[in-house]
Amino acid sequence: MKRVITRAVIVGALMTIAATTLMLPSSFAQRLEQKTETKQSASTFVPASLNERYLYWESTLVKSQYANSCYIFARNSMERLHFQNIRVSTTEVVGSIGNVYAAVTCIETTPNITAVVMVIGNNDTETSKARDELSKDIASWTPID
To answer: What is the pLDDT along the chain (145 residues), one digit of tens a residue?
Structure first.
């Protein structure tokens, strides 16, 4: 059975990740919900406070029809890009590089799997660079069947 995951579900998951991982106040999650700008390929939110956090995400098609391959690609990409504290579960691959925390989840779409790369950090340039490099690297892997 395939699950249908909407953009609203993904945004909700991002808010939960951001709030719990970085122990952000609930007001941040409320501002995020109200002001998040969504686009087809990538999204961003920039809070207007002195203690800024930047949240970016992007979806990319993976050259596989299997979620397990997608998670392997995500882990391999994080290793190749020198992410630290990489953890793999059945629903995501997470890691950090510098002051950026990244989470990748794989969604069963047709014809191939979609990887959703989500990053949060306190430096705009570093955070968006991590998203771009991770998304590009995950999309570059080709499975050997």
So the answer is: 444 444 555 555 555 555 554 444 444 444 444 444 333 345 554 444 556 889 999 999 999 999 999 999 999 999 999 999 999 999 999 999 999 999 999 999 989 999 999 999 999 999 999 999 999 999 999 887 6
Give pTM, 2 decimals: 0.69
Place of tokens 């406070």: 49
Contact 73, 115 (CB under 8 A): yes
Distance in angstroms (rounded) separating the CA atoms of residues 18 and 25: 10
3-class state of residue 85 by DSSP = strand
User: How many Å apart are CA 62 and CA 117, to the nearest integer?
Assistant: 12
By C-alpha distance, which of 21, 134, 2, 19 is closest to 65?
2
What is the DSSP secondary structure assignment for residue 76, as one 8-state letter? Answer: H
Annotate 116-127 with b (16+ C-beta within 10 A) or e (fewer): bbbbbbeeeeeb
The torsion defined by the Cα of 13, 110, 75 and 86, in degrees rounded to 10, comes to 10
Per the CB < 8 A criterion, the answer to whether 117 and 138 are in contact is: yes
What does the block give as tokens for 59?
């979806």
